[in-house]
Amino acid sequence: MKIFIDTADVNEIRKANELGVVSGVTTNPSLVAKSGRSFTEVLKEIVDIVDGPVSAEVMSDDAEGMLKEAEPLLAISEQITIKVPMTLEGLKAVHRFSQQGVPTNVTLVFSANQALVAARAGAAYVSPFLGRLDDINHDGIQLIEDIAHIFSLHDIDTQIIAASVRHPLHVTQAASAGAHIATMPFKVLEQLVKHPLTDQGIERFKRDWEEAQGR
Ligand code: E4P
Question: For a substitution probing ligand 1, which of 2, 4, 6 has the most ligand atoms within 8 Å of its CB?
Fold first, then answer.
């Protein structure tokens, strides 16, 4: 499973990229709003930092609007993937984008049927939202497992991005459920590295080493 970072904060993206584990970036309108910067400006910086796909979401309600809105985004870089909401108009747009060879990431996916139709419309990626399902007492990981099973049974090559990842356990579970990618906030990426026994081990090695130096 690959790791994407889910943020529009370029400082976080830079720090994550230095670790050498990040294969792509996802953004969403809330994350861009939080950055307080212009969307195109942020995207230009992101594609310079990360060598991989960068999802940029369109906001129009209709397919025509989505296609138009995508033009300046696609002009930024070949790395841009157009993130499209899971609606009937969104599917129409995904179909048109795929005919033009433009990769899409269908977002706000909450059921296996939504993932299936998005894939059939030509989506390069589907993004089931784990955390938001868990929030309403549904099993987000089970959804990833169902989508992975259906895609493999029917030879569908659309990639599953486990999204709305809230903690490290989601990452482990998404990987074993068959997600191709997990996109996560920088904080979760940092948590993947941390283990109390690693910290204790480092402390003990240091102590023993210093004691030995003093002898
Ligand atoms: C993914 O592409 C979305 O940007 C993101 O994972 C949403 O996460 P949230 O549910 O924590 O807002």
Answer: 6
